[in-house]
Design goal:
Distance between the termini: 84 Å
Order of helices and strands: HHHEEE
Mean pLDDT: 92
Strand order of the largest sheet: 1-2-3
Structural class: alpha+beta
Strand content: 15-25%
Number of helices: 3
Oligomer: single chain
Largest sheet: 3 strands, antiparallel
Length: 114
């Protein structure tokens, strides 16, 4: 019976290394996913804030041209303005960002209630 057990030497160390590697891979995947979600929320926030600022400019609450104000807000939040439309007091903004080369787009609309 001792002959059978001799071939199993070191199997525990290999298993432990495999478990540690699995935990590391799962942890890195989780960190990457969290970073991607954070980047997505940044783009969504930039679009929301830009639409609100543009609507304020359209209503006269602040000075400036609605789409120019929105562009400044989008840039300040680390995104790029892909589109802006001002129709009366309603401003619609499309902001674009990226994470690891993957584009992310968010659209927001602000103005008085219908």
């Amino acid at each position: 019976m001792t002959g059978l057990l001799r071939g199993e030497r070191g199997a525990g160390a290999v298993l432990a290394i495999a478990l540690v590697m699995a935990v590391v891979v799962i942890g890195l995947a989780g960190v990457t996913l969290a970073s991607a979600l954070s980047a997505r929320q940044r783009v969504i926030g930039a679009a929301d804030l830009a639409a609100l600022a543009g609507a304020d400019a359209a209503s006269g609450a602040i000075g400036g041209v609605p789409c120019e104000v929105a562009a400044g807000v989008v840039r300040a939040n680390g995104a790029r303005l892909a589109g802006c439309e001002a129709a009366g007091l309603v401003v619609t903004v499309t902001a674009v960002g990226s994470f690891a080369g993957m584009p992310m787009e968010a659209r927001a609309r602000a103005g008085p209630p219908r």
